[in-house]
Write a structure and sequence with these properties.
About 70% of the residues lie in helices and about 5% in strands. It is built from 9 helices and 2 strands, in the order ααααααααββα. The structure holds nickel (II) ion.
């Protein structure tokens, strides 16, 4: 028995560094997931009723203003801060939201005017590296988002139940998405990046 206890103690001490290593590795993965997805990943509710759609549209409408409030007085140094190691800078996040939502708006229009069209995917990481991201002041993307969201919201508010069920096909994963789901996804997307800006400024 003593021999067994000694063996177990020896075994535990011998493996302790590995255990600590694995534990800290798991913690760092959890931390990275949290920095990447501070409000969690988008979870589609089972039932998306009219009240949920209205709430989401109101959230999309508020995003440009919230972004402006957060970034209005930032210095060049602050705009270059990132929200996680090797993540985007605040400047890139703002320009990315404009890139993403321009694409989203066009996807809505395609789905409303064609029968389950195949949309065009885009390489968001490479878009965020193009020269306009460095050279354009963020105020231009903030104005763009303000005007775009105004027009997008008018379109979204005009959609009937039937319109909301219209779909498009994403060529990268072969999945079909309804506009009903997309309203939720982009309400999430705005809040998701808003949180990144807040983290970068902490
Ligand atoms: Ni994004």
């Amino acid at each position: 028995m003593v021999k067994y206890a000694r063996y177990m103690i020896g075994f535990t001490i011998y493996h302790l560094p590995f255990t600590i290593y694995h534990f800290s590795f798991i913690i760092s993965i959890i931390k990275m997931e949290h920095l990447k997805y501070p409000i969690g990943r988008f979870k589609k509710p089972e039932n998306i009723d009219a009240a949920t759609i209205n709430k989401w549209i109101a959230e999309i409408e508020r995003i440009p203003n919230k972004l402006k409030e957060l970034t209005d007085t930032l210095s060049e140094e602050e705009l270059n801060r990132t929200y996680r190691p090797s993540g985007w800078t605040i400047r890139q996040v703002i320009h990315h939201i404009a890139d993403s939502h321009i694409n989203a708006y066009i996807r809505f229009k395609w789905a409303l005017t064609e029968d389950n069209p195949t949309i065009k995917a885009y390489d968001e990481a490479r878009w965020a590296e193009l020269p306009d991201t460095q050279k354009t002041p963020i105020t231009i993307s903030l104005y763009l988002l303000n005007e775009l969201h105004a027009r997008w919201s008018i379109l979204m508010r005009s959609l009937s139940e039937e319109d909301l069920n219209r779909t498009f096909l994403h060529p990268e994963n072969g999945n079909t998405y309804s506009l009903r789901d997309m309203v939720g996804l982009y309400a999430w997307h705005g809040k998701h990046h808003l949180e990144h800006v807040k983290i970068a400024l902490k």
